[in-house]
Amino acid sequence: MTSRDAFELRGVVAGPVGTPILRGVDLVVPANGVTVLAGPSGAGKSTLLRLLNRLDDPLEGEVRWRDRPLTDWDPTELRREVAMVFQRAPVFPGTVLDNLRVASAEVSEERAEHVLEHVGLPAGLLGHEAHTLSGGEAQRMCVARALLTDPGVLLADEPTASLDRAARATVEDLGRSLADGGMAVIWVSHDTDQLRRLADHVIVLADGAVRATGHLDELDVSGDDLVRRSVGAA
User: What 3-state class would DSSP assign to 48?
Assistant: First the structure.
């Protein structure tokens, strides 16, 4: 991805009418590596993430990507380019293959097997009932489903919050691998240990505003106590 692929927020106000969560945010979100959105609960991390593929639109201001306002994009087209996975993996009735075909109805079994293997799942799971998957397997299946549209960006809203330690590590490794392969990953996390394992860049939000942005070595020595706590600085 190039710099033109970065997201840019200009004067963004977002959230419920009358009680917005984000208030006048100006921000450039990097277009490569893993960017972690950090900060206290209620700071606006998930609200910001949802703006990036038009699950929500701002009340005021503008979000741009690839030098175009997001409102110029067809939402379906945008979400094929900017995919999202959630804290709780949505699993639909039927087999793993049926679930993958939610994203791409015509996907072949060969392509489906390939994408499963890409996220660290055995191809043999394709015919299994999706509801029998463990939490970690279901989350990776959902990442596989997102990858079937060949997105340039993956948005991850606390994707490991409900997983055990082993499954969490596997999903983290997958996110790191995707970023190292050239996909921009934008990841919301309350877990400072996870942030320190993953983040190439950090955006700290507090009280509906951007408190700080930068690399960990910069934020670790911030004069702002909240910023240092948000990134788990010693």
Answer: helix
